Recover the amino acids of this structure.
């Protein structure tokens, strides 16, 4: 079974969305065979990846950073979407952090990098804005020797 993990920005500019969708679809199609998709199901790249992986028939593993993770979603629609994706997960890995902190997010990202064969990074190439951001997880995965595929549109920066 191929195991593909994701890390990425929560906010994806409109100018980059088509490239992100195309890149994620291409990477999932190229994986071939049976697939396990690892995601923390955060708004943005994580949820887009999870939806595409599920539509391809992948087995979804939800990596939940903390006990209060649901409190991080803004509004009923975001929370409902998260819960829907989580309910479709074949497996849930709940990390032992009571609160959603940078350390919890870093631990979730490193868990995904540790347990995947390839990491997809929806990333503008800029440094992380806090511990556990996309840039940190890409650096961690590369230091492990894990293949990382960066998906983004050149010349576009996130807000």
């Amino acid at each position: 079974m191929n195991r593909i993990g994701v890390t990425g920005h929560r906010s994806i500019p409109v100018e980059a969305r088509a490239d992100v969708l195309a890149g994620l679809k291409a990477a999932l199609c190229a994986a071939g065979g049976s697939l396990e998709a690892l995601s923390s199901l955060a708004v943005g790249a994580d949820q887009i990846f999870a939806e595409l992986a599920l539509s391809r028939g992948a087995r979804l593993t939800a990596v939940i950073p903390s006990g209060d993770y649901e409190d991080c979603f803004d509004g009923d629609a975001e929370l409902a979407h998260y819960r829907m994706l989580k309910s479709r997960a074949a497996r849930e890995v709940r990390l032992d952090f009571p609160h959603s902190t940078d350390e919890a997010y870093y631990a979730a990202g490193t868990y995904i990098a540790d347990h995947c064969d390839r990491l997809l990074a929806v990333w503008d190439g800029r440094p992380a804005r806090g511990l556990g951001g996309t840039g940190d997880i890409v650096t961690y995965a590369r230091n492990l020797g894990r293949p990382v595929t960066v998906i983004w549109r050149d010349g576009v920066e996130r807000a």
